[in-house]
Design goal:
The protein is mainly alpha-helical and about 230 residues long. The protein has nine helices and no strands. Helix 3 packs antiparallel against helix 5, helix 3 packs parallel to helix 7 and helix 8 crosses helix 9. The chain is globular, with a radius of gyration of 17 Å. It starts with 11 loop residues before the first helix and ends in a 5-residue tail after the last helix.
Length: about 230
């Protein structure tokens, strides 16, 4: 995850933006710690059904993730071709990640048709609608704030959660591939994000930080509203 040391390699505007994003991240962590299913995971009372519920509720958000990322790529003009290239590569890498979730669900005894037909909960509805709206705006640099939260979640929390789930449920790593994949790969995504943040902090810092705030709140909401459809 981003550290204070990282900021020393950034421009002044990049450092100030990173400082504000770190404040948003700390608030996000506090929000997550209040979410019941995350609290059960931390306290050791997380159940098999909790894991199935989590997977079933995460899949729609991951499916929508591919949509807003590709929409964002199409919204960048040639002036921002470098950003567009990074976003396109990112979309290509992650647009079928929902299949990892499906495979984990089936490996744990779930039915593939059941998880594929699971509707978005009300938190996911709000998150997806917000991200698609922002991605449809011209040159949506503010979505760097969304990527900071979502990729940071994978880089900082996914491996920890995968290991915790394996220990509590006594299951093999082959059943937590979605979380493990993001824990292993999102660090490289964050590194690419640093460069983009630094390049555009001067002109888009406020929008980037605001979008990070909104996305962090809506992401926590989708975890609070599991199966509330």
């Amino acid at each position: 995850m981003i550290t204070a040391d990282k900021s020393t390699t950034l421009s002044l505007a990049g450092q100030l933006t990173l400082r504000d994003l770190l404040a948003v991240w700390l608030q996000f962590e506090r929000q997550l710690n209040r979410v019941p299913i995350i609290r059960r995971l931390e306290q050791g009372t997380f159940s098999d059904e909790d894991y199935m519920t989590l997977l079933r509720n995460l899949r729609p958000q991951v499916v929508e993730g591919a949509r807003w990322i590709t929409r964002a790529a199409s919204s960048f003009t040639s002036e921002y071709a470098e950003v567009r290239s990074v976003v396109i590569r990112h979309a290509l890498e992650e647009h079928r990640d929902y299949e990892l979730i499906e495979n984990d669900y089936v490996a744990c005894g779930g039915d593939r048709d059941t998880i594929r037909s699971a509707p978005r909960n009300i938190g996911t509805e709000a998150l997806a609608a917000y991200l698609l709206n922002q991605a449809s705006q011209p040159n949506p640099l503010d979505l760097l704030g969304a990527m900071f939260i979502i990729e940071g979640l994978g880089e900082k929390m996914a491996n920890k959660w995968a290991g915790r789930i394996q220990d509590l449920l006594c299951i093999e790593p082959s059943k937590t591939k979605f979380l493990s994949y993001h824990g292993a790969n999102d660090e490289s995504h964050i590194e690419k994000l640093y460069a983009l943040l630094d390049q555009h902090a001067e002109t888009a810092s406020d929008k980037i930080v605001k979008t990070a705030k909104v996305v962090s709140r809506l992401y926590a909401m989708q975890l609070e509203e599991l199966d509330n459809v």
